[in-house]
Write a structure and sequence with these properties.
alpha+beta; 13 helices; 11 strands; 55% helix; 19% strand
Protein backbone atom coordinates (compact mmCIF):
# COMPACT_ATOMS: atom_id res chain seq x y z
CA UNK A 1 0.00 0.00 0.00
CA UNK A 2 2.70 2.47 1.00
CA UNK A 3 4.82 1.59 -2.05
CA UNK A 4 1.90 2.30 -4.39
CA UNK A 5 1.25 5.58 -2.51
CA UNK A 6 4.83 6.80 -3.00
CA UNK A 7 4.76 5.75 -6.63
CA UNK A 8 1.61 7.81 -7.21
CA UNK A 9 3.14 10.87 -5.53
CA UNK A 10 6.40 10.67 -7.56
CA UNK A 11 5.21 12.86 -10.46
CA UNK A 12 7.32 14.65 -13.15
CA UNK A 13 6.52 18.00 -11.47
CA UNK A 14 7.88 16.70 -8.19
CA UNK A 15 10.97 15.39 -9.94
CA UNK A 16 11.42 18.78 -11.68
CA UNK A 17 11.02 20.64 -8.37
CA UNK A 18 13.53 18.32 -6.76
CA UNK A 19 15.92 18.88 -9.67
CA UNK A 20 15.61 22.68 -9.33
CA UNK A 21 16.19 22.52 -5.58
CA UNK A 22 19.19 20.25 -5.95
CA UNK A 23 20.50 22.37 -8.83
CA UNK A 24 20.30 25.52 -6.69
CA UNK A 25 21.97 23.66 -3.84
CA UNK A 26 24.68 22.49 -6.25
CA UNK A 27 25.30 26.05 -7.46
CA UNK A 28 25.59 27.27 -3.87
CA UNK A 29 28.00 24.49 -3.00
CA UNK A 30 30.08 25.22 -6.10
CA UNK A 31 30.22 28.96 -5.27
CA UNK A 32 31.22 28.22 -1.71
CA UNK A 33 33.96 25.86 -2.90
CA UNK A 34 35.25 28.55 -5.29
CA UNK A 35 35.51 31.03 -2.45
CA UNK A 36 37.10 28.46 -0.16
CA UNK A 37 39.61 27.53 -2.89
CA UNK A 38 40.55 31.16 -3.53
CA UNK A 39 40.88 31.92 0.20
CA UNK A 40 43.06 28.84 0.68
CA UNK A 41 45.17 29.73 -2.33
CA UNK A 42 45.57 33.32 -1.09
CA UNK A 43 46.79 32.05 2.28
CA UNK A 44 49.23 29.64 0.64
CA UNK A 45 50.63 32.34 -1.66
CA UNK A 46 50.95 34.81 1.23
CA UNK A 47 52.84 32.22 3.32
CA UNK A 48 55.24 31.66 0.43
CA UNK A 49 55.63 35.42 0.04
CA UNK A 50 56.47 35.85 3.75
CA UNK A 51 59.02 33.01 3.57
CA UNK A 52 60.61 34.55 0.47
CA UNK A 53 60.70 37.99 2.14
CA UNK A 54 62.60 36.55 5.12
CA UNK A 55 64.92 34.63 2.77
CA UNK A 56 66.02 37.71 0.79
CA UNK A 57 66.31 40.12 3.76
CA UNK A 58 70.08 39.66 4.14
CA UNK A 59 70.62 39.68 0.35
CA UNK A 60 68.65 42.95 -0.01
CA UNK A 61 70.55 44.49 2.90
CA UNK A 62 73.91 43.70 1.32
CA UNK A 63 72.69 44.16 -2.27
CA UNK A 64 73.42 40.56 -3.43
CA UNK A 65 71.25 39.93 -6.55
CA UNK A 66 72.69 36.44 -7.07
CA UNK A 67 71.41 35.14 -3.72
CA UNK A 68 68.04 36.87 -4.27
CA UNK A 69 67.68 35.19 -7.69
CA UNK A 70 68.45 31.77 -6.16
CA UNK A 71 65.61 32.17 -3.64
CA UNK A 72 63.23 33.42 -6.36
CA UNK A 73 64.09 30.59 -8.78
CA UNK A 74 63.36 28.02 -6.04
CA UNK A 75 59.64 28.89 -6.34
CA UNK A 76 59.48 27.75 -9.98
CA UNK A 77 58.74 24.22 -8.76
CA UNK A 78 55.23 25.38 -7.81
CA UNK A 79 53.21 25.29 -11.07
CA UNK A 80 50.56 27.62 -9.64
CA UNK A 81 53.02 30.50 -9.25
CA UNK A 82 53.16 32.52 -12.47
CA UNK A 83 55.56 35.34 -11.57
CA UNK A 84 57.76 36.40 -8.65
CA UNK A 85 59.63 39.70 -8.23
CA UNK A 86 61.90 41.22 -5.57
CA UNK A 87 62.06 45.03 -5.43
CA UNK A 88 64.54 47.23 -3.52
CA UNK A 89 63.75 50.41 -1.59
CA UNK A 90 63.68 52.37 -4.86
CA UNK A 91 61.00 49.97 -6.13
CA UNK A 92 63.37 48.71 -8.80
CA UNK A 93 63.06 45.03 -9.80
CA UNK A 94 66.30 43.28 -8.73
CA UNK A 95 65.35 39.56 -9.05
CA UNK A 96 62.43 37.81 -10.77
CA UNK A 97 61.04 34.98 -12.84
CA UNK A 98 57.96 34.98 -15.11
CA UNK A 99 56.57 31.87 -16.77
CA UNK A 100 56.63 31.77 -20.55
CA UNK A 101 53.63 33.50 -22.10
CA UNK A 102 52.65 35.30 -18.89
CA UNK A 103 52.26 39.03 -18.32
CA UNK A 104 55.69 40.51 -17.39
CA UNK A 105 56.28 42.26 -14.07
CA UNK A 106 56.86 45.99 -13.83
CA UNK A 107 60.60 46.77 -13.55
CA UNK A 108 60.34 50.34 -12.21
CA UNK A 109 57.80 50.03 -9.40
CA UNK A 110 56.25 47.33 -7.22
CA UNK A 111 53.77 45.44 -9.43
CA UNK A 112 50.35 45.60 -7.73
CA UNK A 113 48.16 45.07 -10.79
CA UNK A 114 45.14 42.81 -10.29
CA UNK A 115 44.72 40.65 -13.39
CA UNK A 116 41.67 38.56 -14.18
CA UNK A 117 42.02 35.01 -12.92
CA UNK A 118 45.18 35.86 -10.94
CA UNK A 119 46.01 36.15 -7.24
CA UNK A 120 48.48 38.95 -6.39
CA UNK A 121 50.28 39.18 -3.02
CA UNK A 122 52.68 41.97 -1.95
CA UNK A 123 54.85 41.35 1.16
CA UNK A 124 57.20 44.03 2.52
CA UNK A 125 60.81 43.07 3.37
CA UNK A 126 61.81 44.50 6.76
CA UNK A 127 65.08 44.49 8.74
CA UNK A 128 64.46 45.43 12.39
CA UNK A 129 61.46 47.47 11.29
CA UNK A 130 63.37 49.22 8.49
CA UNK A 131 61.90 48.62 4.99
CA UNK A 132 64.41 47.13 2.56
CA UNK A 133 62.01 46.48 -0.33
CA UNK A 134 59.10 44.23 -1.22
CA UNK A 135 58.25 40.81 -2.66
CA UNK A 136 55.54 40.44 -5.33
CA UNK A 137 53.99 37.01 -6.11
CA UNK A 138 51.37 36.42 -8.80
CA UNK A 139 49.61 33.03 -8.78
CA UNK A 140 47.24 31.40 -11.27
CA UNK A 141 43.62 30.92 -10.14
CA UNK A 142 41.77 27.78 -11.06
CA UNK A 143 41.61 27.56 -14.92
CA UNK A 144 38.27 28.59 -16.43
CA UNK A 145 37.77 25.26 -18.21
CA UNK A 146 38.34 23.33 -15.00
CA UNK A 147 35.86 25.48 -13.09
CA UNK A 148 33.26 25.27 -15.87
CA UNK A 149 33.59 21.48 -16.04
CA UNK A 150 33.11 21.23 -12.31
CA UNK A 151 29.95 23.38 -12.44
CA UNK A 152 28.44 21.27 -15.26
CA UNK A 153 29.23 18.06 -13.42
CA UNK A 154 27.51 19.31 -10.26
CA UNK A 155 24.42 20.37 -12.23
CA UNK A 156 24.18 17.01 -14.01
CA UNK A 157 24.57 15.19 -10.73
CA UNK A 158 21.84 17.35 -9.18
CA UNK A 159 19.36 16.62 -12.02
CA UNK A 160 20.12 12.91 -11.95
CA UNK A 161 19.75 12.87 -8.18
CA UNK A 162 16.14 14.06 -8.52
CA UNK A 163 15.37 10.93 -10.55
CA UNK A 164 17.80 8.51 -8.98
CA UNK A 165 18.09 8.81 -5.21
CA UNK A 166 20.81 6.23 -5.16
CA UNK A 167 23.06 8.47 -7.26
CA UNK A 168 22.88 11.11 -4.51
CA UNK A 169 24.92 8.90 -2.23
CA UNK A 170 27.54 8.47 -4.95
CA UNK A 171 27.79 12.22 -5.43
CA UNK A 172 28.20 12.72 -1.68
CA UNK A 173 31.00 10.16 -1.56
CA UNK A 174 32.66 11.92 -4.48
CA UNK A 175 32.43 15.28 -2.71
CA UNK A 176 33.94 13.83 0.45
CA UNK A 177 36.83 12.41 -1.57
CA UNK A 178 37.47 15.82 -3.16
CA UNK A 179 37.57 17.42 0.28
CA UNK A 180 40.02 14.80 1.50
CA UNK A 181 42.24 15.49 -1.51
CA UNK A 182 42.15 19.23 -0.78
CA UNK A 183 43.13 18.60 2.84
CA UNK A 184 45.91 16.23 1.79
CA UNK A 185 47.17 18.83 -0.67
CA UNK A 186 47.16 21.53 2.03
CA UNK A 187 49.06 19.21 4.40
CA UNK A 188 51.64 18.42 1.69
CA UNK A 189 52.10 22.13 1.00
CA UNK A 190 52.58 22.85 4.72
CA UNK A 191 55.25 20.13 4.90
CA UNK A 192 56.95 21.61 1.82
CA UNK A 193 56.92 25.07 3.42
CA UNK A 194 58.42 23.65 6.63
CA UNK A 195 61.17 21.95 4.61
CA UNK A 196 61.87 25.20 2.78
CA UNK A 197 62.09 27.06 6.11
CA UNK A 198 64.58 24.50 7.44
CA UNK A 199 66.70 24.79 4.30
CA UNK A 200 66.66 28.59 4.62
CA UNK A 201 67.91 28.37 8.23
CA UNK A 202 70.70 26.00 7.19
CA UNK A 203 71.66 28.32 4.35
CA UNK A 204 71.76 31.28 6.76
CA UNK A 205 74.14 29.36 9.06
CA UNK A 206 76.34 28.48 6.08
CA UNK A 207 76.45 32.14 5.01
CA UNK A 208 77.46 33.20 8.54
CA UNK A 209 80.26 30.63 8.53
CA UNK A 210 81.43 31.87 5.11
CA UNK A 211 81.53 35.48 6.30
CA UNK A 212 83.55 34.47 9.37
CA UNK A 213 85.91 32.45 7.14
CA UNK A 214 86.43 35.46 4.89
CA UNK A 215 87.03 37.61 7.96
CA UNK A 216 89.73 35.23 9.17
CA UNK A 217 91.32 35.37 5.72
CA UNK A 218 91.41 39.15 6.05
CA UNK A 219 93.07 38.73 9.46
CA UNK A 220 95.78 36.64 7.81
CA UNK A 221 96.44 39.31 5.19
CA UNK A 222 96.38 42.05 7.84
CA UNK A 223 98.80 40.09 10.02
CA UNK A 224 101.22 39.83 7.11
CA UNK A 225 101.05 43.57 6.62
CA UNK A 226 101.84 44.14 10.31
CA UNK A 227 104.94 41.93 10.33
CA UNK A 228 107.11 44.99 9.70
CA UNK A 229 105.63 46.71 12.77
CA UNK A 230 106.48 43.74 15.00
CA UNK A 231 110.00 43.55 13.62
CA UNK A 232 110.51 47.21 14.53
CA UNK A 233 109.08 46.67 18.03
CA UNK A 234 111.28 43.61 18.59
CA UNK A 235 114.30 45.62 17.40
CA UNK A 236 113.50 48.35 19.97
CA UNK A 237 113.16 45.79 22.76
CA UNK A 238 116.36 43.99 21.74
CA UNK A 239 118.30 47.27 21.47
CA UNK A 240 117.17 48.49 24.89
CA UNK A 241 118.05 45.17 26.50
CA UNK A 242 121.49 45.28 24.85
CA UNK A 243 122.07 48.83 26.10
CA UNK A 244 120.82 47.77 29.51
CA UNK A 245 123.50 45.05 29.69
CA UNK A 246 126.20 47.53 28.64
CA UNK A 247 125.16 50.31 31.06
CA UNK A 248 125.63 48.34 34.25
CA UNK A 249 123.56 48.50 37.39
CA UNK A 250 125.32 51.63 38.75
CA UNK A 251 123.81 53.97 36.13
CA UNK A 252 120.23 54.04 37.46
CA UNK A 253 119.04 56.80 35.07
CA UNK A 254 120.15 54.91 31.95
CA UNK A 255 118.87 51.67 33.48
CA UNK A 256 115.37 53.11 33.96
CA UNK A 257 115.38 54.71 30.50
CA UNK A 258 116.17 51.42 28.76
CA UNK A 259 113.63 49.48 30.84
CA UNK A 260 110.94 52.07 30.07
CA UNK A 261 111.76 51.96 26.35
CA UNK A 262 111.50 48.18 26.21
CA UNK A 263 108.27 48.23 28.27
CA UNK A 264 106.69 50.79 25.95
CA UNK A 265 107.55 48.65 22.91
CA UNK A 266 106.02 45.58 24.59
CA UNK A 267 102.85 47.55 25.38
CA UNK A 268 102.58 48.76 21.78
CA UNK A 269 103.04 45.19 20.51
CA UNK A 270 100.31 43.97 22.88
CA UNK A 271 98.01 46.73 21.68
CA UNK A 272 98.46 45.59 18.07
CA UNK A 273 97.75 41.97 19.05
CA UNK A 274 94.59 43.01 20.89
CA UNK A 275 93.40 44.87 17.81
CA UNK A 276 93.93 41.78 15.66
CA UNK A 277 92.05 39.59 18.16
CA UNK A 278 89.17 42.07 18.36
CA UNK A 279 88.97 42.10 14.57
CA UNK A 280 88.99 38.31 14.21
CA UNK A 281 86.55 37.23 16.92
CA UNK A 282 82.79 37.07 16.41
CA UNK A 283 81.21 39.53 18.84
CA UNK A 284 78.18 41.85 19.12
CA UNK A 285 78.62 45.59 18.94
CA UNK A 286 79.50 47.32 22.23
CA UNK A 287 78.89 51.02 21.60
CA UNK A 288 80.21 53.62 24.05
CA UNK A 289 81.03 57.31 24.09
CA UNK A 290 83.99 57.93 21.76
CA UNK A 291 86.11 60.97 20.94
CA UNK A 292 87.16 60.17 17.35
CA UNK A 293 90.15 62.53 17.61
CA UNK A 294 91.53 60.56 20.55
CA UNK A 295 90.81 57.27 18.78
CA UNK A 296 92.72 58.38 15.66
CA UNK A 297 95.65 59.76 17.67
CA UNK A 298 95.89 56.44 19.51
CA UNK A 299 96.06 54.64 16.13
CA UNK A 300 98.64 57.03 14.68
CA UNK A 301 101.60 54.66 14.71
CA UNK A 302 99.55 51.79 13.28
CA UNK A 303 98.13 54.03 10.56
CA UNK A 304 101.59 55.33 9.60
CA UNK A 305 103.04 51.82 9.37
CA UNK A 306 100.01 50.52 7.44
CA UNK A 307 100.21 53.42 4.97
CA UNK A 308 103.85 52.66 4.20
CA UNK A 309 106.89 54.82 3.50
CA UNK A 310 105.63 56.09 0.13
CA UNK A 311 102.47 57.63 1.52
CA UNK A 312 102.48 60.94 3.41
CA UNK A 313 99.78 61.04 6.10
CA UNK A 314 98.27 64.38 7.13
CA UNK A 315 95.81 65.03 9.96
CA UNK A 316 92.97 67.55 10.21
CA UNK A 317 91.28 66.66 13.51
CA UNK A 318 88.79 69.47 14.14
CA UNK A 319 85.79 67.64 15.65
CA UNK A 320 84.70 68.71 19.14
CA UNK A 321 81.66 66.42 19.56
CA UNK A 322 81.57 62.80 20.68
CA UNK A 323 79.64 59.92 19.18
CA UNK A 324 78.44 56.45 20.22
CA UNK A 325 80.12 53.52 18.49
CA UNK A 326 82.08 50.31 19.06
CA UNK A 327 85.75 51.32 19.44
CA UNK A 328 87.25 48.08 18.10
CA UNK A 329 85.03 48.07 15.03
CA UNK A 330 85.71 51.76 14.35
CA UNK A 331 89.45 51.12 14.53
CA UNK A 332 89.00 48.25 12.06
CA UNK A 333 87.14 50.57 9.69
CA UNK A 334 89.90 53.22 9.79
CA UNK A 335 92.60 50.57 9.33
CA UNK A 336 90.81 49.00 6.34
CA UNK A 337 90.34 52.41 4.73
CA UNK A 338 94.03 53.19 5.27
CA UNK A 339 95.10 49.94 3.60
CA UNK A 340 92.70 50.56 0.69
CA UNK A 341 94.10 54.09 0.26
CA UNK A 342 97.68 52.77 0.31
CA UNK A 343 96.85 50.17 -2.37
CA UNK A 344 95.22 52.90 -4.49
CA UNK A 345 98.54 54.86 -4.45
CA UNK A 346 101.18 52.32 -5.58
CA UNK A 347 103.57 55.15 -6.56
CA UNK A 348 102.97 57.10 -3.35
CA UNK A 349 100.75 60.03 -2.55
CA UNK A 350 98.99 61.80 0.30
CA UNK A 351 96.49 60.30 2.75
CA UNK A 352 94.44 62.85 4.70
CA UNK A 353 92.42 61.84 7.75
CA UNK A 354 90.05 64.60 8.89
CA UNK A 355 87.27 65.00 11.46
CA UNK A 356 84.76 67.81 11.91
CA UNK A 357 81.41 68.69 13.44
CA UNK A 358 78.60 68.63 10.90
CA UNK A 359 74.96 69.75 11.02
CA UNK A 360 72.82 68.67 8.05
CA UNK A 361 69.42 70.07 7.24
CA UNK A 362 66.68 68.19 5.43
CA UNK A 363 66.72 70.59 2.45
CA UNK A 364 70.43 69.95 1.85
CA UNK A 365 70.16 66.18 1.70
CA UNK A 366 67.36 65.34 -0.69
CA UNK A 367 65.95 62.87 1.83
CA UNK A 368 68.83 60.35 1.61
CA UNK A 369 70.22 61.03 5.09
CA UNK A 370 68.28 61.91 8.23
CA UNK A 371 68.84 65.57 9.17
CA UNK A 372 70.69 66.27 12.40
CA UNK A 373 74.09 66.72 14.06
CA UNK A 374 76.90 64.36 13.07
CA UNK A 375 80.59 63.80 13.68
CA UNK A 376 82.13 63.56 10.21
CA UNK A 377 85.26 61.54 9.39
CA UNK A 378 86.92 61.82 5.98
CA UNK A 379 89.63 59.48 4.68
CA UNK A 380 90.96 61.07 1.48
CA UNK A 381 93.67 59.74 -0.87
CA UNK A 382 95.24 61.02 -4.08
CA UNK A 383 95.20 57.62 -5.76
CA UNK A 384 93.72 56.13 -8.90
CA UNK A 385 90.07 56.73 -7.96
CA UNK A 386 87.09 54.63 -9.14
CA UNK A 387 84.75 54.57 -12.08
CA UNK A 388 81.05 55.07 -11.35
CA UNK A 389 80.41 51.37 -11.99
CA UNK A 390 83.04 50.33 -9.44
CA UNK A 391 81.82 52.95 -6.92
CA UNK A 392 78.25 51.57 -6.98
CA UNK A 393 79.55 48.03 -6.31
CA UNK A 394 82.31 48.93 -3.84
CA UNK A 395 80.31 48.01 -0.70
CA UNK A 396 78.97 44.73 -2.12
CA UNK A 397 80.25 41.71 -0.17
CA UNK A 398 83.24 39.97 -1.81
CA UNK A 399 83.57 42.61 -4.57
CA UNK A 400 87.19 43.67 -5.08
CA UNK A 401 89.33 45.13 -7.87
CA UNK A 402 92.54 43.84 -6.29
CA UNK A 403 94.41 40.85 -7.82
CA UNK A 404 93.42 37.42 -6.59
CA UNK A 405 94.89 36.69 -3.18
CA UNK A 406 95.38 40.36 -2.27
CA UNK A 407 91.83 41.29 -1.30
CA UNK A 408 88.74 39.59 0.14
CA UNK A 409 86.18 42.20 -0.89
CA UNK A 410 84.88 42.39 2.69
CA UNK A 411 86.63 45.55 3.99
CA UNK A 412 84.21 48.17 2.65
CA UNK A 413 81.14 45.93 2.98
CA UNK A 414 81.83 45.29 6.68
CA UNK A 415 82.60 48.98 7.21
CA UNK A 416 79.30 49.93 5.56
CA UNK A 417 77.36 47.38 7.65
CA UNK A 418 78.98 48.58 10.91
CA UNK A 419 78.30 52.26 10.16
CA UNK A 420 74.64 51.53 9.34
CA UNK A 421 74.31 49.45 12.56
CA UNK A 422 75.64 52.51 14.40
CA UNK A 423 72.85 54.65 12.82
CA UNK A 424 75.40 56.39 10.62
CA UNK A 425 76.08 56.76 6.91
CA UNK A 426 79.00 55.93 4.62
CA UNK A 427 79.44 57.63 1.26
CA UNK A 428 82.11 57.34 -1.44
CA UNK A 429 83.25 60.42 -3.38
CA UNK A 430 85.60 59.53 -6.24
CA UNK A 431 86.71 60.28 -9.79
CA UNK A 432 89.07 58.21 -11.95
CA UNK A 433 92.60 59.61 -11.59
CA UNK A 434 91.49 62.16 -8.96
CA UNK A 435 91.54 60.04 -5.82
CA UNK A 436 88.84 58.83 -3.43
CA UNK A 437 87.26 60.23 -0.28
CA UNK A 438 85.34 57.97 2.13
CA UNK A 439 82.90 60.07 4.16
CA UNK A 440 81.58 58.62 7.44
CA UNK A 441 78.79 60.35 9.38
CA UNK A 442 78.08 59.16 12.94
CA UNK A 443 75.33 60.81 15.04
CA UNK A 444 76.50 63.25 17.70
CA UNK A 445 76.11 61.92 21.21
CA UNK A 446 73.39 63.96 22.88
CA UNK A 447 73.61 64.68 26.59
CA UNK A 448 77.35 64.07 26.96
CA UNK A 449 79.77 66.57 28.44
CA UNK A 450 81.54 67.40 25.22
CA UNK A 451 81.92 71.00 24.12
CA UNK A 452 79.02 72.47 22.21
Amino acid sequence: MSGRYLQGRFTPALALAGAVILLAAGVLVSTYQDRLFRAQQLREVRVQGEILAKSVTAALFFGDPKVMQEHVSALEINPEIEAVGVYDTRQVLVASFVRKGSEPLSRTHVDTRTLAGKTMVIVPVLQDGTPLGAVSIRAIDEPFNTGLTRHIAIMLLAIMAALLVAFMGTSQRTLREVNRQVEARALALAETNQLLQTEMEERSKAEDALRQSQKMEAVGQLSGGLAHDFNNLLTIIQGNLHLLRLSGAEDRTAFQTYVDGAGEAVERAGHVVRRLLAFSRRQPLSPRSVDLNELLIGMKDLILHSAGDRVRVTWELNATWKTLCDVNQMENVILNLTINARDAMPDGGTLTIATSDCVLSESALGGTIAPGAYVETRVRDTGTGMTEEVRTMAVDPFFTTKPQGLGTGLGLSMAFAFIRQSNGYLNIETLPGKGTTIVILLPRQIGSSENA
